Structure prediction request, 489 residues.
Amino acid sequence: MKTVPRAARVLVAASAFLALALAALHLFGARDSVSILSGTMPAGGGESAALGALYVLAWFGTVVASPPMVFAALLLTALRLARRGSD
Amino acid sequence: MAGGVAVRASVKVVRRGAVVVVALAIGAAAWLPLLHRFFAPSESDVAQPAQSVVARGMFKEQLGVWEDDARRTELLARMRRTNPEWDFMGRTFVAMALLNEALRDPSSMDRYLSVVDRIVDDTEALIEKHGAEHFLLPYALRGAWQVTPRKSIFIDGELAWIHAARQLVARDETRMPQLRAHIDSIVERMSEGPVASAESYPDECWTFCNTVALAALRVADVALGEDHSALRKRWVEIAKRRLVDPQTGLLVSSYRYDGAHLDGPEGSSIFMSAHDLVLVDEDFAKDQWARAKKELGKETLGFAWAREWPARAKKRGVDVDSGPIVPFVEASAGASGMAVLGAATFEDRTMLRGLLASMGLAAFPIDRAGARRYAASNQVGDAVVLYAMLQGPIVARVKSGK
Prediction:
């Protein structure tokens, strides 16, 4: 039996993917393109708007969803370790 | 036997899934109440909004926009593609922010007044050249205006507000005729109206515009030494009887020239109207703020936002005033921006802290060289928040009567 449960590994991988996506989009300047949220087309037009929409998803994924996912992964791993200790 | 194995495997999968869901729920329960701490403004920023990091950064940004012709032209052109009103309102809120700041910082008054004068001159010149329709939605030219020649209180009210505040800050006789013309137009049209209101669009009176005009009259009264209190009183009396929504007690957003209701209360309108009413009837203003906060304001986990429509109102689609609406929580970008003005005006620090935290999380601030703008917003959205943070000195001067 592996120490880190599969579900925990998936959660951490998903969090890492979101964070990396956010970093890449940020470096690509996508934060500037989220003005579509106020109904205003960004300077770069439709392509920029699409990048902006991806940035919004990556941002909320990283800031709101990722920490609970990492916390859950730690909890699942701790449970696995506790169960192994009690066996 | 194989079936028994399969059932046991299924139970195991479901149990593991349930454990993951519970772990995620515990993680969310631990994280979400902490999240606001990363975006909330400091206590001193909330106590003194005008000195806050947000206000100072936004002030530098907006001043920069109006001192850089190429940048301003590009920003305004992008907004105008969605709504030409935003171009006009962005000018108004920046000018009013600058006039408040001129009183707060007299050493920079000349610089700020020169930008205000440039804004006004440019705006009046565009109206002279293209007509007021330059700043109105296309249907201004389609319907039948009840009072002719057509004139929009949206335009007269906001320009009168700026001109009057400008004269209050520093008298300039060369600009007095413009103030006189806007005030005379407001007084004439509102006095003639059956519900003491003038049209913003054909047979459409907007509470937002009429309350701005009333506030402008009060500022002008102090600046010019006149008295239009009877008109203001008449509007409030009529509004309390005929222009409030029976379910919520909130002022409706728009109505026919004869007073028949069109749109019900809206967050993008009522917070501004409550702010304006401080200079018209302070008790009514406080009443409208309290009702608007109750019906439209939401606070949870250290964040705050505003809905565009009361929960018990008939469901409506997104429009140009509401801006996009976040599903489930029904947060409206337009209403939430205006709620900052309400919270700052009525010194509701809890709401203001929550709204600024929400902006930190969901409006995507960009700080460059000490200047701040919100990437999710646009020039008018930023100008509204800037004005919200800087307002105060003009109202105080008007109340003092000096």
User: Anything to note?
Assistant: Residues 2-35 of chain B form the longest helix (34 residues). Chain B has a mean pLDDT of 94.
